[in-house]
Fold this sequence. Notes:
The structure holds 2 protein chains of 2 kinds. By secondary structure, chain A is an alpha/beta fold. Chain A has 2 domains: 3-173, Thiamin diphosphate (ThDP)-binding fold, Pyr/PP domains (Rossmann fold); 189-317, Rossmann fold (3-Layer(aba) Sandwich). Helix content of chain A is 41%, strand content 18%. Chain A is globular, with a radius of gyration of 19 Å. Chain B has one domain (12-31, 40-217): Rossmann fold (3-Layer(aba) Sandwich), CATH 3.40.50.970. Chain B is built from 9 helices and 5 strands; from the N terminus they run ααβααβαβααβαβα. In chain B, helix 2 packs parallel to helix 3 and helix 4 (101-115) packs parallel to helix 5. Chain B starts with a helix and ends with a helix. The chains are: A alpha/beta, B alpha/beta. The interface between A and B is medium-sized, with 29 and 31 residues. The structure holds thiamine diphosphate (TPP) and magnesium ion. Magnesium ion is lined by residues 126-128, 157, 159-160 of chain B.
Amino acid sequence: xxxxxxxxxxxxxxxxxxxxxxxxxxxxxxxxxxxxxxxxxxxxxxxxxxxxxxxxxxxxxxxxxxxxxxxxxxxxxxxxxxxxxxxxxxxxxxxxxxxxxxxxxxxxxxxxxxxxxxxxxxxxxxxxxxxxxxxxxxxxxxxxxxxxxxxxxxxxxxxxxxxxxxxxxxxxxxxxxxxxxxxxxxxxxxxxxxxxxxxxxxxxxxxxxxxxxxxxxxxxxxxxxxxxxxxxxxxxxxxxxxxxxxxxxxxxxxxxxxxxxxxxxxxxxxxxxxxxxxxxxxxxxxxxxxxxxxxxxxxxxxxxxxxxxxxxxxxxxxxxxxx
Amino acid sequence: xxxxxxxxxxxxxxxxxxxxxxxxxxxxxxxxxxxxxxxxxxxxxxxxxxxxxxxxxxxxxxxxxxxxxxxxxxxxxxxxxxxxxxxxxxxxxxxxxxxxxxxxxxxxxxxxxxxxxxxxxxxxxxxxxxxxxxxxxxxxxxxxxxxxxxxxxxxxxxxxxxxxxxxxxxxxxxxxxxxxxxxxxxxxxxxxxxxxxxxxxxxxxxxxxxxxxxxxxxxxxxxxxxxxxxxxxxxxxxxxxxxxxxxxxxxxxx
Lengths: 323, 254
Ligand SMILES: Cc1ncc(C[n+]2csc(CCOP(=O)(O)OP(=O)(O)O)c2C)c(N)n1
Ligand SMILES: [Mg+2]
């Protein structure tokens, strides 16, 4: 059993919705825009207090994002709250053209991202959205790892002038950020120190990375765990330092192995400090039906699975023959 | 089934299961022993969240083993929360995101027309689902192509996920909209088999334009304490509620 299962797990949608209410209290321009997703985005409280500031366009995601762009143009600060799978897939052209290219101050909040809707099948898995969003210019992409980071990321998105995609989950995660933690867009943080291998993760995978680091420490492998909440802009310095200091990098994501966090990290690694890497994620398939945690375990992202990948990579690094 | 899975969309399933039964037992020319026969009628469940109702109907019609339905949404089951055509015989296209079924059905109907074949295409959507613009794009195309081999059934239960349709993004006057888009619209009682079959007969007899059967239904039909309550879109009954619901469904409301 991984250590995390003994800690209390929290659905970060609560922290998201509370923070949105606080922002709306302070700033009358904050509006929530949704697609029949009041309940799934935990917007009941917002709706009760400011029914007129909750814009529900119905089940119509293209319209959802277009309307949000118009609201921003009109001077408001829209937070679009919709299931990540439909928000990013269905409205991708609106995200590109109306939000990113037109540079409207829209905050896109993708709820229940990754495989949080595991049993509902691959239509409801949002495991391509890092890829889709991070290749669009002028769009900031953030995936917070626990409640505290979610609160701060929502505030940072509001303060940031420009389009942001916040990738949120409903899957329970423990509180992992240290006391006094300060989130900043584009800045990764080290949560565990080590010199043998780096594990880079975000969102629902960061706590699993920490658990893996504990397992590895027991066998004398010291892993550096980096929480890379911002996928774009990427903290390149943190990646280059990880490659230089540890010589091996494992990345974890609740996303396809193609085009996401691992790919983004690899782009930096190959250009600046090539080292062996293992990219863990959904292995290029439509995932079968099952809960998110079952699927993550199956794809090698249990604490044991991550530790095994890290161990193998350390071995590969050490046995590499010098040219 | 929903109780075993601990998830599902009970209200959505009970509102359309009568339509599915009417289609599979009396209308569709499909063969469970040859589910991919080229000349088969096509059925598309656009409101894919009612997959549970489709699976039990497919099992009853011989496409699945009856026992298999209890694997619904279990880890590794092919009976996912939304239907997957590569995994489940009888499923024509994958649905789940709303607003996909009608465009695909238009393509199917157009294919039959281009090949000069007489099989028909049927598609079932929700009503809230019609807020997706893709339906209206497809609706225009179907009329433009004069697809009288296409029948759209709308499960008009007046509710969507979080609220009544009228309080979210009202579709009314829904029948007039389809008429204005060039469709033949027929109102039916979606819980009365005679009415459903009469509508299907009219659709088959209609030429030169597609037919829309506006099926007036109730969300969670058949269970008095669930019917027309928004929470039952995807709530899972407690043991006690399950027993009461079963009694309601087998004996009728007391
Ligand atoms: C594109 C898309 N957006 C949102 C959803 C989430 N969702 C699932 S069912 C549903 C409500 C559907 O209402 P309706 O079409 O009236 O179907 P009913 O269950 O009432 O038959 C919503 C919003 C979805 N499946 N697809
Ligand atoms: Mg409905």
